[in-house]
Amino acid sequence: MPADPPSPTLTSRLSLSPQSRALGLQLVATEPDVILKIPYREDLVGEPDTGVIAGGVVTTLLDLACGWATALALDQPTSFATLDLRIDYMRPAQPGRDLLATAHCYKLTRSVAFLRAVAYDADPTDPVAAAQAAFMLDSNAGRGPGANLGPRHGQAEPDA
Amino acid sequence: MSAAQADLDGILARIPYARFLGVRMELHGDEMTGILPYAEHLIGNPTLPALHGGVIGAFMEMTALLQLSILESLMRQPRPVDVSFDYLRSGRPLDTYARALIKKVGRRIANVQVEAWQEARGAPIAIMHGHFLLSPKEG
Asked: Which of A37, A60, A64, A136 could form a disulfide with A26 if both were Cys (CB 3.0 to 4.6 A apart)?
């Protein structure tokens, strides 16, 4: 467990993403690895008979954790996007328990970040799911935000 | 509305997370299309803006689950064993569609592929393949 709680500057980033806000995402720690939490909520249940949280919530949390690990591994803020994400579901999350995830960037190249992440509900050594992901760095390749979104959004900038 | 469509609507209505996402499923004959209507809370990157990759993944996973539920008579909802997503394009702030292809159904495991697209089916924004457990372990 970290000695210091995450800084308010980092915590404030959580509110930037509407999906993170909708899930009630919390930043638990950033050192040595990022830990994120989604508190248990009835409206995130995927199996109504058992109260088990939906696999999709686990998917989103693992993607978020990998994104945070990528951002924290970079020296300078750079845009990035998920290239691929593979998830193994080991067991259903315990109904009523908050869902946590931790991610680690184990290799950073000029264009790709390689990540591993686990989701758990009590003990990180007894994971609910594990993920391996690759994130493309500087995915806009100097063409401005959302270059692949086409001219309709009018955000493309001249090549730098 | 067909009885099969009514069954599908019934299954979806009972899943709280399906309502959280706003997912719908439409049946035309034996072909099912998942529909994720655009909503602001699905955005992950507000600067672009782009749909959250996890949301696109969750939507494809749900499409696979529902496709299995209507084609196979199951004791309970299938559970994902592993899934793998490739992200091909940013998800624009538009309605997203998905279709699942069941490649194999074994006694306990099904192999499913899903494609998600927005304006053009030929330009998918993400693809998924995964394995799903169809029945509880015996013994």
From this structure: A37
